[in-house]
């Protein structure tokens, strides 16, 4: 593994995530300080909690299907990167997103 490339990428992702968190926190603080009603603040917090839950659900499903894709690759003994191997990983990612879509629609309809 090439750690000379991995370290800067990880650093950039960390910086971007930190900036996003700070901007989101300032936006929430601005809304609260602007004299927003209690209903608006509660709605904002409730929507944010729902987005976080859905985000965790999506990443869990997608990572699980990608892991299954890697498992298939290992099971079939594929060692070289080929279009078929990339297709298995892309298909696993797509399947994970589709599963999330179906599950999230059922959650919304039942809730």
Task: Give a short overview.
The chain is mostly helical. It has helices at 3-33, 38-76, 83-110.
Description:
With 111 residues, the protein is mainly alpha-helical. It has 2 domains: 1-35; 49-111. Helices cover 88% and strands 0% of the residues. It is built from 3 helices and no strands.
Task: For this entry, give a set of tags.
111 residues, flat, 88% helix, mainly alpha, single chain
The DSSP helix count reads 3
The rough form would be described as: flat
Mean pLDDT: 86
Helical content (DSSP H or I, runs of 4+): over 70%
Q: H/E order of the elements?
A: HHH
Extract low-pLDDT stretches: none
Please write out the topology:
Blueprint lengths: L2 H31 L4 H39 L6 H28 L1
